[in-house]
């Protein structure tokens, strides 16, 4: 599956350390950023997330 900027991501349910959530319910009316990367590129993702936060 490919998502592009502005696409609505599919809803999903998952268990978290704070209990179960429904993605769409959790996000509400807020924007959500998805970062996807291979496990061995964690520093790259961390940099992207930090840059986005700026």
Helix and strand topology:
Blueprint: E1 13-16, E2 19-22, H1 23-27, H2 42-53
Antiparallel strand pairs: 1-2
Describe this structure in words.
The chain is an alpha+beta fold. It is 31% helix and 15% strand. The chain has two helices and two strands; from the N terminus they run ββαα. Strands 1-2 form a two-stranded antiparallel sheet. The chain is globular. The model has no long low-confidence stretch (mean pLDDT 82).
- Any low-confidence stretches, pLDDT <50, length ≥5? none
Q: What string gives the helices and strands in order?
A: EEHH
Kindly state the number of beta strands.
2
Output the strand order for the largest sheet.
Answer: 1-2
Percent of residues in β-strands? 5-15%
Q: What is the helix tally? A: 2
Give the structural class.
alpha+beta
How does the overall form come out from the CA principal axes? globular
Q: What integer value in Å does the Rg equal?
A: 13 Å
For the terminal residues, how far apart are their CA atoms?
29 Å
Helix content: 25-40%
Main sheet?
A: 2 strands, antiparallel
**What would the average pLDDT be, to the nearest integer?**
82
């Amino acid at each position: 599956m490919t998502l592009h900027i502005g696409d609505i991501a599919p809803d999903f349910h998952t268990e978290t350390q704070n209990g179960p959530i429904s993605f769409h319910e959790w996000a509400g009316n807020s924007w959500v950023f998805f970062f996807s990367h291979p496990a061995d590129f964690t520093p790259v993702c961390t940099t992207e997330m930090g840059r986005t936060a700026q």
